[in-house]
Write a sequence for this structure.
């Protein structure tokens, strides 16, 4: 796979961070839509898949922080655990795209995405249980908050994100993962 310049990766990361502020504002017009549809996860996952783990990590930390600063969403009480969860998403997406090499773009995207989504939810739950809500957090609360409530968001992410990345590759806006050799 050819690589992108640092400038291009930085611009894409900045756009994803901006989406972390804008997307939740659109979804929060509906009560509880943020926790159901997880709109902030989408740009962070995209950033990790497209730009790599360092940029995904930056997007996962800066996106929620700036969103909280500018819009009050997420509230300060939820911000630290959300930053941990979302930073893990961006980091794992980037790492997995580097490590997974099936010779099939969609397989690489789905494997990376699923591992990142599971890893972020597990690490986010552990961080919440051990640090941010010590003693007040249970397995049932974790399963409900990270899986049951957000199931529509998980489905949207699994359908939308690989399609977006593939479309960006087809449009030559990001490098093809497995470029065809011309004869």
């Amino acid at each position: 796979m050819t690589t992108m310049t640092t400038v291009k990766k930085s611009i894409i990361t900045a756009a994803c961070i901006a989406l972390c502020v804008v997307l939740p504002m659109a979804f929060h017009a509906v009560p509880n839509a943020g926790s159901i549809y997880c709109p902030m996860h989408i740009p962070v996952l995209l950033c990790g898949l497209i730009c790599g783990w360092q940029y995904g990590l930056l997007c996962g930390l800066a996106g929620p922080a700036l969103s909280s600063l500018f819009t009050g969403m997420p509230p300060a009480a939820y911000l630290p655990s959300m930053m941990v969860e979302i930073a893990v998403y961006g980091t794992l997406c980037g790492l997995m795209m580097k490590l997974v090499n099936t010779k099939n773009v969609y397989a690489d995207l789905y494997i990376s995405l699923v591992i990142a989504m599971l890893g972020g939810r597990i690490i986010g739950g552990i961080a919440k249980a051990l640090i941010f809500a010590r003693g007040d957090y249970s397995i049932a609360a974790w399963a409900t908050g990270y899986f049951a409530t957000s199931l529509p968001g998980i489905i949207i992410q699994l359908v939308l994100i690989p399609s977006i990345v593939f479309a960006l590759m087809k449009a030559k806006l990001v490098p093809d993962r497995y470029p065809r050799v011309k004869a």
